[in-house]
Structures are given as C-alpha cells and as structure tokens.
User: What shape does this take?
Amino acid sequence: MMMRKRMAALQKLFNSNNKKSSSGTLFSPLSFLISYSTHSQTNYYSTKNPFKSVGFNNNNNSLDLDLDDALNSFNCILRTRPLPPIQRFNQLLSAIVKMKHYSVAISLIRRLHLLGITSSRLVKPNIYTFNIAINCFCHLNRVDFAFSILGKIFKLGLEPTCVTFTTLIKGLCVNGNVARAVRFFDDIVQKGFQPDLITYGTIINGLCKICNTRAAILLLKDMERMGSCQPGVVQYSTIIDSLYKDKKVDEALKMFSDMAGKGITPNVFTYTSLIHGLCNLGQWKEAVRLLSEMTTRNISLNVQTYSVLVDTLCKEGMVKDAHKVLDLMVQRGVEPDTITYSALMDGYCLLGKIADARKILEFMKARGCEPNVVTYNIFINGYIKSKMIDEALRLFNDMSRKGLIPNIVTYNTIIGGLCDVGKPLDACVLVDEMQTHGQQPDLVTYATLLVCLCKEKRLDKALLLFKMIEDNGLVPDIVIYSILVDGMCNAGKLDAAKELLLSLPKKGLQPDTRSYNIMINGLCKEGKLKEANELLNKMEEEGCSANGFTYNIIVQAFLQDGEITKAIELLRVMNARGFPATAWTTNLVVNLLCDDALDPSNKEVLQKFFGIK
Assistant: This one.
C-alpha cells in the first residue's frame, strides 16, 4: 500500500514537472527516435557475419566488441527462438552506450518497444532499459524527452530506481538547469524517495559547478543531520575543490579538518585540490606539509597532483625544478599528460627558452602524447613574446594541416602579435578569417585591434570597428570605451571624447579611474586645465577616487603653465592621501626652482612645500 501511494505521488509530481513545449504539445521521444533512425548513417544490417559470437572481457565479464559487432549481435538475437530475456538486450545496449553511440541505442530501444507492441514474440523493456534510454536522451541534451520516458515508466506501472532519478538530476545539471534539478530533488525526497550517495553527490557537484558552494555545504550538513546517508570522501572532496576554486582556501582547509575529524580518509583528489589552492596563494610550506602527509598515508601522487606542482613551479620561474618534477613522475611510473607537458613548455616559453620547450615537445610526442590546440597556443605565444611573428604565423598555418582547429585564444594571440608589430590591417583580415571558420571574435579581440588602430592614428577605422562590435551583438565594456576615448584624445577630438565619456552612465556603465585619467590627460595636453580640474572634481563627486597618476598629470600641467599656487594646492592633497610625486613631477619642480625668471613668491611657496631652504 505504501509503495502504491509513493508511486502515485511521484507520478503526480512527474505530471507537474513535465511541462509543455512552446508549441503547446508535449515533447515526444518517439518522434525523436524516428528522426534519429531516419537520419542515422549507421547500417544496422552490416555485411559482417551476423552469427559472430559476442566477445567477453575476461577481467570483468563485460562485453568487449565494437559497434558493428554489437549491431550484428542485436539483430542475431532478435531472430533467436525463443527470444532471450531483456537482460541480454540491456547488456548490448549498455555496451553501445559505453561507446557513446547514444542515438543508436535509442533507435534499438525503439525497435524493442515496437516489437513488444506489434508482435506475439513479446519483449518487454524493463526499468533498466528505460534507465538506459533516459541516460541517452540526457547525453543528447534532450532532458525533456528523458522526462517523457519517466512518464512511460509510471504508465507501465514500473518503479523508478535511484539510477532513474539520479540520471535525470545529472541531465538537468549538465544541461545548465541546476535550479530545476534542486527543485526536482527536493520534490521527490518529499514524496518519499530516498536518495543515495551518488544522488547527493550529483546535486552537490551541480551546485559547485555554478559556484553555489554555500548551498552545497548546506546540503552536506543536511545529509549529516538526517543520518540515513552520511557524506563520504567524494562529497567532501567536491566541496573542498569548489572552495579552492573560489579562492577560499582557509575554508577548504577547515572542511578538510572537519572531514578528518569525522573519520573520513581523504583521497588523492582531496589533497590535489588543497595543494593547488595553497600553491596559487604561495603557501608553499603548507603545500609541502600536505604532500608529506600524503606520503605518510601511502597516497600516491597522480598525474593531476604532479601537473599542479609543475605548473606552480613554472609560474614562479623555477622551470628547472619543474623539469625535475616531470622526470621524477616518469621514474615513478606516472605518465605525464598534455596538461603536464604544456605547463612545462609554457614555463620555458615565458623565459624565452623556446628551444628547450621544443625538446619537451619532442619528448612528449616520443611518448605517444600528441600536441593539441593548447600546445600550439603556448608556442605561438612564446614566439610572439620573443618578437618572432613569422614563426608564430608558420605554426598557426601548420595547425590546419594537422587537423587542429584554432580557438579564440589562438586567434587573439596572433592578432595581438600582428598589432604589436604595427600590422593592424593584417590583423583585421584575420578577424574576417576567423569568422569564416565559425570562430566569433570576443571583446578581447576587438580591444586589441582598437588599441592598435588608435595608436596608428586610424580613428576612422577604429570607429568602424566599434560599430562592428555592436552589430555582432556584443556589449562594449568600460575597457572598449576607454580605448576609444584615448584614441579620440590623441586625434585632437577632445569634445567628442568628453561627450562619449560623460554619456557612459546612460549606457549602464560608470567611468572608472583609468577612463577619467585618459580624459584628464588629454585635456591637460591641450592646455585645457580648467576643464581638467573640473573633471577631477566631478570624478570625486561621482564616487570615483583619483589616484596618484591623476594628481601627477594635473600637477605637472599646472606647473608647466606657471600656476604654482594651484599646483601646490593639489600637491598638498596628494601628500595628505599618501600619493608620491613622480620623478617627472619632481624634475619639473627642481627645474622651476633653478629658473631665475620664476616669480620669487612662487619660488618661496615651492621651497616651503618641499622643505628647501
């Protein structure tokens, strides 16, 4: 009776969750199945021997076959008399899913479903079959169809398992709908479903992925409070990893301590997350302590732990030590991956030692680890930093020949390199090319080009590029507007620059200290000191604090214009706020004091302020 009540409650919940589509009708998994079977290029009746026996892996008794073998075996057992139990079909379906042929698995489930309806040779899919279908739809980003399968489960009177609900929750999380996953989780628990560790772990992981670590911690506390399903090392480690990524290493260490206090033994993933966080903060002593603790607990470092150490050492400029760590991990039988090699190659490239980086590349390839886009990006960046733009372009062109598709980082790096050598037009051609290849420029791309065009006094082309940003649906940020203001100032269009700066609040942007400094500097260069001083007062009124650079710019302008009293007034404010005079400001003062033509009263004011007798 209790089971029937729970099933009824869950079915009612499903009906409320399974929303209609925008067309007003429920999504049909059947229509999707038909679509896949119609458009799939897979030949379900391969010319291979249809009676080839299915192989098994002796180690785990799992199916060991390729897709053609699986499809032939499926067709073969469909012709068997009597038909084998559904478990045999489920085994084949699971093997196909492991190969990530989700649409094929769904099409085969559809054939089983139709066979059960139209044939006397009844094959009834069970809950495990439907769980496979739900998993496939979630992997195909069709969680709506997955929920339709849940409705079918209820309709047939089957009882969903933990796997059913956990797969649906994971599908929602992976597809970016963590909020709905949490609501669904809360609802099914309220209706009597008892989640297991994997279900809790899926929700906790989803919350951490969207940086809602606080909610994940609360859920962990709920697990402990309820007592029926105590959190383990996986749940704690997921939260510790999220806290480190949030740069909350102290909280991560406290969570680590709480975990140990409850008798939960940390694993290599737990330690690696903490060590990574500590290394990023430069807390080497604590990181080494944890490494020592790992050794004491007989927890071997894995490739991720070694990669963290290599990356951190390289960022600290200790590339030789990083290389020793790579050698050590190879000696200990831990195979470096692309991330490990890339970190070391990047370290060498940042030091300008590209020849050493290439040796690592050859070593990497010799061990069967092929370079990827990240590897190419590292070398392209290294060549550009070393002012070897031709070599960078050669590598860039080589990527397509190797079947690698440049990403936004690749294009931005090359565009930056072309701009650095004064080739903005070549860079603009590359922007067109990247769009042709389906890679859309981002604000970093446009900012790089704008800086170059403005520096080259091509304001007209910069303004055209700015229009392109808006036309492409991107929203310019304060960095983009600051570049334009600077370009306008350098081109002598001060009124247009000031108008643009002051219009930013209407666009939902507040000018920052840098953007005000650009404008104040432009006004000072043109001798418009009154306007510059007014803008200084305005930025303070708007809550944007001036910095040392602001005051030095305007003080220098007043000193050069002979307005010593005003300069001294601003120097006093600088002094009170702890902003030192720059070498150029001090040099101006010294030159003025040495100038016999300087008015004696002004000389006296300057001498008094700087304590010169």
Residues 19-62 have pLDDT under 50 and may be disordered.
